[in-house]
What does this fold into?
Amino acid sequence: MQARTDVIVVGAGVAGLTAAKLLARAGRSVVVLEARDRIGGRVYTERGTHTTDLGASWIHGVTDCPVADAAEAFGMRMVEFTVGGYQPDSRPIAYYSPHGTRLTDREAAAFAADVHTLDDVLVEIIAASDPLASYREVTEAALAATGWDQARRERIREYFTHRAQEQYGVEASHLAAHGLDDDQILGDEVVFPGGYDRLPSRLAEGLDVRLGSPVRTVSWSPAGVTIHTDSEAFEAGAVVVTVPVGVLQSGDLTFDPPLPAEVADPLSRLRMNAFEKVFLRFPTRFWDAGYAVRQQGDAGRWWHSWYDLTRLHGTPTLLTFAAGDAAREIRSWSDEDVARSVMTQLRRLYGASIPEPVAVTVTRWQDDPYSRGSYAYMTRGSSTSDHDDLATPLAGVLHLAGEATWTDDPATVVAAMCSGHRAACRVLGEDIALENAWGGDPAARKS
It folds into this structure.
């Protein structure tokens, strides 16, 4: 016998839990089906000797941010850490030259000024770019317009290459020219010493969440939907599917009938990235005081930026990222092999006598069958509208949500939350307040 409910939500990440909480508080019966044995999706905190956010870490700007509002309502302690958007300055950053010597404050300021200059030039060049242009091509056009000498251009070219890698986990030549249009930070950035997972945990309170229930098929028509897992079937008036782009493209989840062109086409122009975190904990802190250390030149092709997380728990900790080609290359490496590679570069900067890390953690999002990467990026030929188009409602019953379906700030927890809110409003056929997901009057309507 098939179970019947008003709405099925596929995925217990922030998008799915936000939608489910809003729908439940609006009086709908909701079942959340989650493939993993935990909630949170790509918000995943490892707890033990240390609290480590293996997935999402930052709120990239707390100004007018619903995730910050929810975190405050849930009593989640936040620590300012405004370097997550790969800013060139505004916080203390130790820059090292291609020769391994630290830049003076004046040299670092001049370098940051060049970055800001190119950012300003890029705006018009990207706006006028060909639909098939890559971020590399528009960057090169902007550099050519500066008239700078080769060495100066190379340092800035390198910076923008690393920005594409760190922000979207992809090489600049594969990222759409408009792929970083959303790269704007409003207000301070913050991280969570107590773990980001408290957000989905609180959103999930009171919901009917079925763990270990990977959805295999979604059959949909104007009359409703039928959802099949490996062991159960559910009928509902509507479904909100919040699985990542990598799963939508994998074939592990099928739609009957298949997704039509208005959704399938934008989906085809998005890809999951290759992006992993590497945490190294040390017995002592040997690096420069500040927020981050950055290495210029060929030696920093893979390991070029380290973020000092010591302030979170008092344990000397550096975070670096493997992105794009580096992430794909280390995929088969052991954690120890990754650490040795990172330490080679750190010893180049700080000497052979620096201590070995006492603990190393490397994420493996590329190998997670329920994400197949960390988050989505725009390929060449895509447009910013592809994100919202991916969430086009189908037959009034099938709704896609998740970080890749929100144009204003994709690849973030904010995008996930806002997309879940939009899906809930569409299911209900009316606007409701997002704040209902963590408080307020469930009967409140969006003002």
